[in-house]
Amino acid sequence: MTAEPMISINSALDEVLAAVTPGAAEEVELLAAFDRVLAETVVSPEDVPSFDNSAMDGYALRGADLASGRCDLLVTVEIPAGHHSDVPLAAGEAAKIMTGAPLPPGADTVVPVEQTSQEGATVSILQPVAPGEHVRHRAEDVRQGDVLLERGTLLGPAEVGLLAAVGQALVSVARRPRVAILATGSELVPPGTPLGPGQIRNSNSFTAHGQVLAAGGQPVPLGIAHDDLAETRRLIARALEEEVALTSGGVSVGEFDFVKQVQEELGVERRFWRVAVKPGKPMAFGVRGSCLVFGVPGNPVAAMVSFELYIRPALLAMQGCRDLYRPSVLAAADEPVAPSKGRTEARRCRVRRDGDACRFSTTGPQGSGILRSMALADGLAFVPAGYPGAEPGERLMVMLLEGRSTLRPPYPG
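Below the sequence we write its predicted structure tokens.
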């Protein structure tokens, strides 16, 4: 039988994103909106600030008095934060004012308290201050009708604070995609269970759980499907009830690898199976109805790299996020670059700044089962297929494992 051809990273990613349907929106309270994706553009209903106010504790006065050389003023009113005065200041008058309090009518300048001296009802200006200083003007931050945040914005602390500043108690956000997570293989046991002969810990369900959360999804853990056809069919059928089904292992060519067989029986339309990347060649993707079906390799690093390359962008796209990709940099190798064979290689690495440039070094042995190489990494250095190797200083594209970008990294191949 002729082996199914491998496709490139970019072709695989194109297939995945073409199958994505943006999900529904829901309205949540503002404190529940952190790390959610905005589902509608927000236009400010009001000015921020809504009145001219003092940027300092001090004295509000008329700038014309300072321009005329007047240094001693009569303090006629005190305005704490949260209060206001409707009485206009006349020439030669000042108001004692706290930070954030509204300026009284006629005032256009604030002198900080440390630049003054008050004796009784008279305040003396000890240092020159330019007219208009230390005033926060109405709408200098946001003007009513301004586009505050665009649809597709990830809501972090500053964005949520900005919504609070214009009085938004509720916000429309993309609903978190539900992702069923299923590990396969009779050799797997959960943490906390003693290992028997030939058994290994199930780490893939835990790394996937964290990656789903980090991408804004809602993990639905389904445990372990042992190498039994009926059990595998039951659990995959359950996984297909969610918006995304993610299995690890069981998509290779072993005698007990039932995942592909069961998916076909349950009506999953396979879009691709093998990708020309190391680690992560036996990566499967298909659809059934609106469910996206991913089968990542069983080796822990291959599973994590596959998630980063295809599943993470898909989950972000389902939420309408604008920034689907990790940022990338060109970085120079601190070590000799080993040659590659017939596939693009994603080598786990640490990235560091060297002046205006970036450099990287790999995180030790690069086997697809060496999970520590991923725990130590903050980047993936991509080596093109058939690369002859190079001395230290060779520059490669490195995808950073933190941050977001609208630009797809220039994956080789």
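The helical segments are 9-18, 63-67, 157-165, 204-214, 229-239, 259-265, 300-318, 372-375.
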